[in-house]
Amino acid sequence: MNIFRLAGDMTHLASVLVLLLKIHTIKSCAGVSLRTQELYAIVFATRYLDIFTSYVSLYNTFMKLVFLGSSFSIVWYIRYHKAVQRTYDREQDTFRHWFLVLPCLLLALVIHEKFTFLEVLWTFSLYLEAVAILPQLVLLQRTRNIDNLTGQYIFLLGGYRGLYILNWIYRYFTEPHFVHWITWIAGLVQTLLYADFFYYYFLSWKNNKKLQLPA
Q1: Of 203, 99, 87, 95, whose CA–CA distance to 141 is shortest?
Q2: Residue 200 pLDDT greater than 90, yes or no
Q3: Could you give the CA distance from residue 179 to residue 171 in angstroms, rounded to a whole number?
Q4: How many CA atoms lie within 13 A of 107 on its CB side?
Q5: pTM for this model (two decimals)
Q6: With contact defined as beta carbons under 8 Å apart, do 133 and 190 qualify?
Q7: Gap between the Cα atoms of 2 and 35, Å rounded
Q8: Whole-number Cα distances in Å, 176 to 60, 114, 165, 179
Q9: To 10 degrees, what angle do helices 98-110 and 34-47 make?
């Protein structure tokens, strides 16, 4: 494992911890899209089915369990925790996220590296993760009220994907025959979706102002 992969994993883990800190400690999910969190739960559930069939390392298994457990616990908190669910903005979080699932599944059935059950689901998870942030970004544009923890959560998510791109570049030049077009393109699309957010995040940091996205 190279430094970019490790940094990406730790950044991804940090994003989850920041969101759990906000929800569990402050008892608030204001500004957090339940629809994006439901998509992430599907992403990890379909990507990590191989946890029952193959073993890579203790680190790999631990990270899979962390992301599976955290994604479903976040959904549970927002849906069923009495204090947290009262802070959920249902009226603004209306992106029809289920319309993203079917196209991603159909695309995975058509474009994949190997036509097996686990491979198609893994490819589906890549496509779905690429667009899973859309409901969250739309919610932030609608509310324009982005608290520090929510802003840091989105920033860390985008940072994780950027570090993974550096990981792929490093592996391309250091490992023979390392070519994974599906992973690369899906990851690039996902990173580009964060571009607008990163621009306004940088402006807010530079000008020492509250982060706001244009409506």
Answers
A1: 95
A2: no
A3: 9
A4: 15
A5: 0.93
A6: yes
A7: 33
A8: 23, 20, 17, 9
A9: 30
